[in-house]
Amino acid sequence: MRLRYITGRIFASLITLWVVITLTFFLMRAIPGGPFTEERAIPEHVLEKMLERYHLNDPIYVQYGNYLLNVLKLDLGPSYRYEGLSVNELIAGSFPASFMVGGIALMISLLLGIPAGIISALKHGKWQDKISVVFATFGVTIPSFVIATVLVYFFAYKWGLVTVGFWEGFSTAILPAVTLAGYPAAFISRLVRSSMLEILQQDYIRTAYSKGLRQMSVIYIHALKNALIPVITYLAPLTAGILTGSFVVEQVFGVPGLGTFFVTSITNRDYTTIMGVTIFYSALLVLFNLVADVCLSFVDPRINLK
Asked: What's the CA dihedral at 297, 303, 304, 305 to 10 degrees?
C-alpha cells in the first residue's frame, strides 16, 4: 500500500515537472523579441547565423522536442550570453554559494523556530509566550532587505566584525544566512506554537499525564511528533526556496549565488539560462515536496495511502 502511494507521488511529480518545462519553454518563445535582440540592430546575415547555430530557426515543435530530450539527458543547453559555457556549468558554479548560505539559514530556522514554538505553547499567556510572539511577529513582517541593511551597518561598518561585498566562503555566509533565516524561523515558531497548543488539549496527552509521565516525555515523545506535521509540510517549499538563494540578500552581501545569477540572466535576455534555472528550481521544489509527502505518510497515520 505504501509503495503504491510513493509510486503515485513520484509519477505525479514527474508530470508536474513536465508541465513546468513545457510552460517555461513556450512562455520564453512568446516573449517579444529574442535572445539576440539588442538596442543596436544586429546585421541580418549575422542574426541568421546565430539563429542557425542555436537551431532557433527550426519549427517550434522541433525545438520543443529537442529541448525536452536534452532535459531528459540533464542537458539544459548552452548559454546565449556566456560564450563557451553551458547552463549546467553556470548553475554548478553559482549554486554552491547559495547552497551554503541556504543550508546555514535552514539550520538556524529550525534550531530557533521549533524550540521557540514549544516554549511559547508551554508558557501560554506568560511573559515567555508574549516575547516569543513579539519576535515572531517582527520576523514575519520585517522585509529581508531591512534586516540585511541593519546587519551590514552594525556588524560590517560600525563594529567591523565581518566584511561584505565579496565572497570568502563560510565566514561571509553567516550574515546572509541569519538574514534569510529571519522569516522562516518566525513562521516555524508560529506553526509549532499553534499546533502544540491544539495538541496539548487532546485526550491522549491528558492520559499520558495521568499515567505519571514526566512533562519532557509527554512533550517530546507524544506531542512533538504531531506538532511537527505542519512544519514538515512547510519545509518543502522553504528548503527549495532558501537553497536557491534570495536575489536581494545575495546582492546586499555580495554572494555570487543562483539568485543573483538568475536575475542577471533576465536582464541579459539569456533565455536558455532563464529556462534552465527555472527548471532547476522547480525540480528542487518537486523533489522536496515528494520527500515531505513520503515523510508525512510515515509520521501521520491519518494520511490516506490509497
From this structure: 0
- The one-character DSSP state at 169 is S
* pTM of the predicted structure, to 2 decimals: 0.83
Note whether 76 and 86 are within 8 A (CB).
yes
pLDDT at res. 189: 92
Per-residue pLDDT tens for 222-269? 788 888 888 888 888 888 778 776 777 888 888 888 887 788 888 777
- Are 188 and 121 a contacting pair, CB within 8 Å? no
Can you give the length of the chain in residues?
306
Residue 208 CA to residue 11 CA, distance in Å, equals 41
* DSSP code of residue 80: S
State the amino acid at position 130 in one-letter form. K
Asked whether the beta carbons of 245 and 260 are under 8 A apart, the reply is yes
Place of cell 519532557: 216
- Cβ–Cβ < 8 Å for 24, 298: no
Q: Which amino acid does the sequence have at 99? A: F
Per the listing, cell 516575547 goes with 131
Q: Is residue 288 within a helix (H) or strand (E), and if so which, with residue range?
A: helix 271-299
Please give the angle made by the CA atoms of 297, 302 and 304, to the nearest 5 degrees.
Answer: 65
**Rg, C-alpha atoms of the chain:** 24
CA distances from 175 to 86, 101, 153, 154 (A): 31, 9, 11, 11
Crossing angle for the helix pair 174-199 and 229-243, nearest 10 degrees? 160
* The three three-digit cell numbers of residue 153, written as one number: 551597518
Residues 271-295: pLDDT tens digits?
888 899 889 988 988 888 888 877 7
